[in-house]
Amino acid sequence: MTMIADEHDLDRPADAAGDVVERRLAVEGMTCGTCVNRVGRALRKLPGVHDAEVSLATHEALVTLEPGAGQPDDDALLAALTRAGYQGAIITEGAADGGIGADPRDARQAQEVVDSRRLGIEVIIGAVLAVPLVGQMVWMQFGVPPLPGWAQLLLATPVQIGLGRRFLRPAWGALKAGVGNMDLLVVLGTWAAFGLSVYLWLARDHEMHLYFEAAAAVTVLVLFGRWMEGRARRATGAAIRALAALRPDTARRRNADGSESDVAVTALRVGDVLSIRPGERIAADARVIEGEGSADESMLTGESLPVDKAPGASLSAGTVNGSDPLLARVVRVGRDTTLAQVVRMVEHAQATRAPVQAVVDRVSAVFVPVVVVIALCTVGGWLIAGADWPDAVIAAVTVLVIACPCAMGLATPAAIVAGTGAAARAGILVRSPAAFDHGVGIDLALIDKTGTLTEGRPRLLRQIDGGTPAVAAAAALARAAGLQQASEHPLARAIRAAAEDEDVVPAVVTGRRNRPGAGVEGLIGDVPHRLGSRRFMADAGIALPDAAAAEADHAEADGATVVWLAAVPDGGAPRLLGGFVLADAPRADAADAVRALTGRGITVRMLSGDAPATARAVAARLGIAEATGGADPAAKADAVTAAKTQGHRVMMVGDGVNDAPALAVADLSVAIGGGTDVAMAAADITLMRQSPSLLPATLDICRLTRVKIRQNLVWAFGYNTIGIPLAALGLLDPVFAGAAMALSSVSVLANALLLARWRPADLERGVA
């Protein structure tokens, strides 16, 4: 796993010497797990290639080259793809920015959107043509004659020749490679049914024995599955695009003569000086050289409170400056920035994803050659037995018809559609069909704290008496809210929100001045006041009463932050007016969710970017035995990887950019609704309400959908297992074979639709 550099590494220039070189390739023509294996083998055979990770989800290959001489060039990589039967293109890094910013894959992604729309239209057209053909299988049972042969041919031909063309090239490639895949199975089955129907209609005039509906239905159903896979594949790129949007396109650079100018981020170089205005996103990794303030680093660390910045402190690209201007010297740009490393971690993780369709692909790889061999043996056996060649061919075609993957093509998409719909009704948005595969067997849940188990924003829990009887709690709150009136610091917003909730009018403050890292001061009336940390009070000669100090110590041990208010009159004795206990409170249903997961035999651990003491305190309140604090994106991803290495099936739950690499590498990734776009794009599943209470139900629907997929596959292959030997022996005619395939499809669909009855367990009633 690529590690993110800490601030001690920021001044060290990136050393390219000896680094492992990566090449990312766009691969066209992959349709199943067999294709993934072929592409990977072809690339790994090249001298100088260390490894090749091929993803059917993204249609990309990440090739890692051995350091030093002897590395294959781009032409050699593309030639290897061509020899394997696929087309490819090198995905280049965007200028000097390491692919962050103007993504070079945008044009390809736009073309995929166009292709998806075209495929969707073709599926609709194919369905319109296939419905009458399939419908006649029903009305024939009531004595209604089928459509005339010429009408069936007229309906089936556009589907077979027009829509079915998509399967021919990959099927031919598999045939040349001597392997079986779903495309070859589709081609054999559909063309066998179509060809037999044409022959019977022209040569024998057996209109009752035509099988155009089998060919059309298989083509449409499999194309529908491909359309769904394409939508899921495009969604995986959303995480990268959302991460790219976190870095600004321009930055304000200070020139040698002291003037400032706006420049493109790609033009920044190490050593440039940035002028960072309040509220701006930081354009590159840098180190503060002038000014004091704070930065919101929650997108990288998960820390809910801004981090104080002073000369010498590090800044990360994509984070947000606070309310004070800063000057900073650039120490890392482009692909060396922290943000770019997060991008690469997500890309690495996504490249290793396997789709739920892999079950069908693995079976098809064996099933296809077996069916072909049985069909050939059927022809030979019947001819040896003295049968006429037309009868021998019909027996062999019957084998291919009953082996036609109609139910196989429907088994996975039908269960996914039903499971996705049932989950959506419960508030669980399944972004990737692979989630149903990945969510089975989870035994470890790693859950982010801020914004996931907690509300993600501090609020005022209570006030501490400062020992000044003349100042009531409401008056102290009014003064604190007045001092924080102009600040966007999360603690300031919490104090203002508390004043608004209590209908307390903020005091009028003049001469307000921010003291970075300490607090704020200003005049209320003619009296100077301070609001800030315990140290800020000590600097003014204010000692906390023993009772107040003890209460504050207890609150801080529980993970809260305490700020103090004091009046500091000129020439008079300072007076402590009170303290304010603020904390990011746990969500109301977080403890219930933890108990429900534990009740299912799942170990729950907390991963947080907050201080370790804070993480442990919140975990203890929620009943979580183990908590890790101070975890950056790389540490979270490494924790997931380590748990998987130990044999755990890991569910990662988070809501921030800092969770994206861990979400991408987990077996099952879940984002809490209301979180960042990056987290939701990197996750398999998004909970549509800001609540962890749906986590147990998420695992339930994954398990049930996976069960339905496997039941459907068993059902579909069961028909074949029984029917193929009977067809080879001549005990089935093509009519019954077609009817059996139609019945298997109906059975698969009906079984999948049973998921519509699913409802999540009600945690409030204690159902786990």
From TrEMBL:
Protein topology in the membrane: Multi-pass membrane protein
Pfam families in the record: E1-E2_ATPase, HMA, Hydrolase
Subcellular location: Cell membrane; Endomembrane system
Keywords assigned by UniProt, alphabetized: ATP-binding, Cell membrane, Membrane, Metal-binding, Nucleotide-binding, Translocase, Transmembrane, Transmembrane helix
CDD domains attached to this UniProt entry: HMA
Ranges in coiled-coil conformation: none
Transmembrane segments: 119-138, 150-168, 180-202, 208-225, 363-387, 393-418, 713-732, 738-756
Gene3D superfamilies cross-referenced by the UniProt entry: 3.30.70.100, Calcium-transporting ATPase, cytoplasmic domain N (3.40.1110.10), Calcium-transporting ATPase, cytoplasmic transduction domain A (2.70.150.10), HAD superfamily/HAD-like (3.40.50.1000)
Residue ranges occupied by any HMA domain in the UniProt entry: 21-89
Keyword presence, Cell cycle: no
InterPro entries membership: ATPase_P-typ_cyto_dom_N, ATPase_P-typ_P_site, ATPase_P-typ_TM_dom_sf, ATPase_P-typ_transduc_dom_A_sf, ATPase_P-type_domA, HAD-like_sf, HAD_sf, Heavy-metal-associated_CS
Family: Belongs to the cation transport ATPase (P-type) (TC 3.A.3) family. Type IB subfamily.
Name of this protein: Copper-transporting ATPase
Source species: Tistrella bauzanensis
Phylogenetic lineage: Bacteria, Pseudomonadati, Pseudomonadota, Alphaproteobacteria, Geminicoccales
